[in-house]
Write a structure and sequence with these properties.
Radius of gyration: 26 Å
Shape: elongated
Largest sheet: 20 strands, antiparallel
Number of strands: 20
Helix content: 25-40%
Strand content: 25-35%
Oligomer: single chain
Number of helices: 18
Number of domains: 2
Length: 490
């Protein structure tokens, strides 16, 4: 948890007025703290106000924390132990002089993050920092152009530096005792090489949200170069992302609705990705409409096998590499929907849809059903020839299995609906997951989470109920891969 919290300290920074130095891009007018970005950053993420950053960070924890079993309150407590203040509490940060209505910015010239925040009271911040030293925080300092820069070691591999100049506070994290270059390059930027990237990121943000409070970009190639120079063992994984030039970040939140987007410039690889997409069955979109659970992965899994192998050392499942796993199961794509479910009664209404490159694994599963031929009848489900299987005292289902697809459904007429109708227009998404938490009882959510070994399944099911709907999606748009996360609170 300590390592996670230290990492999130840096992430928090992503989430006060002055005229910028010569060379600062005009596009940063809405983000005054961006005046302090150095000439050649590897990433820049700016928030219009500290409140925007807090809201974005809190919402991100509420959504992603459900997956990892982490709650915002736990993160807040961990941050307070490290920083002596809860940065997620508006009153707490305001009391030490931080301007809740002022902008803030996160940037780096490698990977070590620096953030700059506007202050309403430099005196209150100075007193807070002095109290930390009085309470035993051991520091060293150097003077850079009349400004004292302090450094403290928080952990074996975590160093914290800060500087206070008039109404601005700089905070820098690094894995070693750093030089003062990070501060000098920020306080007096020697030009601007990031203006074009920022303009691109702002354009992507406007396409994603009406009024994004957090905007930024990441130069993934520069980040990869830094990481491979520090950790050569990650190079095979980093090389898989070579086609990605940059990533845009946009977050919009108003307390009720939250929307975030990553705009990933994949260049010419977009066409290759699109060519590996497999469309769902023709009636899938209609059949999954308003389902409490609707999920689809439409990108041929074989196309990402090399990526999985490079980033896992070829140990994906049970010592097998990705291609061996896929060869065992023969699966290209995966889709599922659930309208209702009663595990005790072995009943419900839902379906799965798999595109295959061989049928061996699923044929072997069906062969395990005793006297299957006595309990099934041939049926036509729109474009597919399949079977209706009814095993007394066990379950009733419809299925299709051939060399290309495996479809299975419970619920009268559902597979017929999936196999008929008009396909959804346009290119299918790479990924789409849509949840309506109120559509299933809490105990059913808990049971489902238990089946996939999610952490704290009971608590996760309860937390999910605070959302009216959630969506995670990825799709190709021109030369961009757009990754969206959207949620509405109840």
């Amino acid at each position: 948890m300590r390592a996670l919290v230290l990492t999130l300290v840096a992430v928090l920074a992503a989430c006060g007025p002055a005229k910028g130095p010569a060379g600062a891009p005009a596009a940063v007018a809405a983000f005054p703290a961006a005046r302090w970005v150095p000439a050649d950053p590897t990433y820049v993420i700016a928030a219009q106000t500290f409140r925007d950053a807090q809201s974005s960070f809190r919402d991100a924890i509420d959504i992603t924390g459900m997956v990892f079993g982490v709650e915002a309150s736990e993160i807040a407590q961990g941050l307070q132990r490290i920083l002596a203040v809860d940065p997620m509490n508006p009153d707490a940060v305001a009391s030490i002089g931080i301007d809740l209505s002022g902008s803030m910015v996160l940037f780096s010239e490698d990977v070590d993050p620096t953030f700059v925040v506007h202050l309403t009271s430099a005196e209150a911040m100075a007193n807070f920092l002095e109290n930390l030293r009085t309470r035993g925080l051991r520091t060293q300092s150097i003077v850079s152009d009349g400004v004292e820069v302090f450094t403290a070691q928080l952990d074996r591999d975590v160093f914290l530096s800060w500087a206070l100049d008039k109404e601005w506070l700089w905070v820098h994290f690094s894995g070693k005792a750093d030089s003062r270059d990070w501060f000098e390059h920020s306080r007096k930027p020697a030009g601007n090489k990031w203006g074009a990237a920022w303009a691109w990121a702002e354009g992507a943000a406007r396409a994603a949200a009406k009024s994004p409070g957090v905007v930024g970009f990441v130069d993934l190639r520069d980040i990869a170069n830094v990481m491979t120079s520090r950790f050569p063992e990650v190079k095979p994984c980093a090389d898989q992302f070579a086609p990605v030039e940059r990533v845009g970040v946009a977050i919009e939140t108003d307390g009720k609705h939250v929307a975030g987007r990553l705009t990933i410039d994949v260049g010419g690889s977009a066409q290759a990705i699109a060519s590996q997409l497999v469309a769902p069955p023709p009636g899938w979109a209609a059949a999954s409409d308003r389902a409490p659970i609707a999920a689809q992965w439409n990108l041929d899994l074989r196309s990402v096998a090399d990526l999985a192998n490079a980033c896992t050392g070829g140990q994906v499942i049970g010592g097998l590499d990705a291609r061996q796993v896929l060869d065992n199961y023969g699966v290209r794509t995966v889709r599922a929907l659930v309208h209702s479910l009663d595990p005790d009664d072995r009943s419900g209404r839902g379906a799965i849809s798999l595109d295959l490159f061989h049928r061996r694994f699923f044929a072997s599963l069906l062969d395990e059903v005793p006297m299957r031929s006595k309990f099934e009848k041939s049926r036509t489900y729109g474009a597919y020839q399949g079977k209706h299987l009814s095993v007394p005292f066990v379950a009733t289902a419809d299925y299709v299995l051939d060399d290309r697809v495996f479809l299975a459904a419970m619920g009268d007429g559902l597979l017929q609906q999936i196999g008929t109708g008009t396909p959804a227009p346009g290119t299918p998404p790479v990924l789409a997951i849509d949840l309506i938490p109120s559509g299933l009882p809490v105990d059913i959510w808990q049971w489902l989470f238990q089946q996939v070994d999610m952490p704290s399944p009971k608590r996760l099911a309860q937390r999910l109920q605070s959302w009216a709907d959630l969506h995670l999606g990825a799709r190709i748009d021109g030369s961009m891969l757009l990754v969206d996360a959207v949620g509405t609170r109840r």
